[in-house]
Design goal:
The protein is mainly alpha-helical. Helix content is 49%, strand content 0%. The N and C termini lie far apart (43 Å).
Amino acid sequence: MTSYVLEDKDAYLALVDRFPLVPIHGERHLNQAITIIDELTGREALAPGEEQYLEVLSDLIERYEEERHPIGGASPAETLRFLMESNGLRQADLAHLFSSKSNLSEVLAGRRGLSQAQMVRLAEYFRVSPALFLPASSNTRRIAPRRTSVPARAPSGRRRSG
């Protein structure tokens, strides 16, 4: 039997004391877990114990969401629309990721597919996997988008770095 060494036990246990690593039961519990995830992922750097805690908590959230909120075969347009609505964005906010605003309109209407380059740019912008924008038939395991916020926007409409 192999034993596992917990790195940075103090940081890990401080987080466990704040939010115990137990199966998630209910939306309120899920929202508390997401708050912790957002706090940890918003930091510049994490201690090894914090990284280990984050990994386990992410797994617990994923398991809960897969059981309670399964995502069917959402189209790329539906996925994009969901991410826009979740982040309070309008078409004009994403126009710089497409060659024209009309191309974005056609994608959202389902009349045009996303190019590979657009999938990559959208994935970077929303901080999700590019696979999320693949058509359902190409992506056998659809994962619900994580509830993340989009980086703050500079007045010019471009993302701020950092």
